[in-house]
């Protein structure tokens, strides 16, 4: 029994939509279905997976824009982000207009998530960590058993999330990464919202925005 994962880049922003599934039950969760929902569903169907929920890290259009339509097609509910993210989820129509995305209606998930909550994927459990800074209600999903972190736009290979959007806070983001994520095991695989995978250890040692000389 193990948690498996696969990334499908979606939207013109090449956002890493993650499909997580429990190998034992073949039940799955889709994280950040920002768009291209037919392609996401086709991949899931091709693997014989049963999607039981959608998860959101935050409310930017490339992460959340396709979630409501996909959830409706699949007959499942949406969990996450943290409640402060209503600021961005309410503005999905405006975001779509700004960036030329298909229209998305304002979205309210069936379950808001808080620090310390857990979400299940089949027989597997993910821990919820609230990491504000890129956006106010941003959450990430950590599987201790699989040693994987779905990080959204908090932490990237050699970089961190932007904080120049409304409600962004640079110091909050730095604190979240250093105090909440860098305490995870070094061999934790980080699936960022964009770009290649990395590990917690690699970012602790070499990320120019948040690395600490103690770890080099």
From TrEMBL:
The record ties this protein, via Pfam families, to: Lactamase_B
Q: Does the keyword Oxidoreductase apply?
A: no
UniProt KW Protease keyword: no
Alphabetically sorted, this entry's keywords are: Hydrolase, Metal-binding, Zinc
Per its Swiss-Prot or TrEMBL entry, what cofactor is needed?
Answer: Zn(2+)
List each copy of the Metallo-beta-lactamase domain by range: 14-194
Q: Which domain of life is it from?
A: Bacteria
Q: Which SUPFAM superfamilies match?
A: Metallo-hydrolase/oxidoreductase
Q: Could you identify this protein by its name?
A: MBL fold metallo-hydrolase
Question: Which organism's genome codes for this protein?
Answer: Chromobacterium indicum
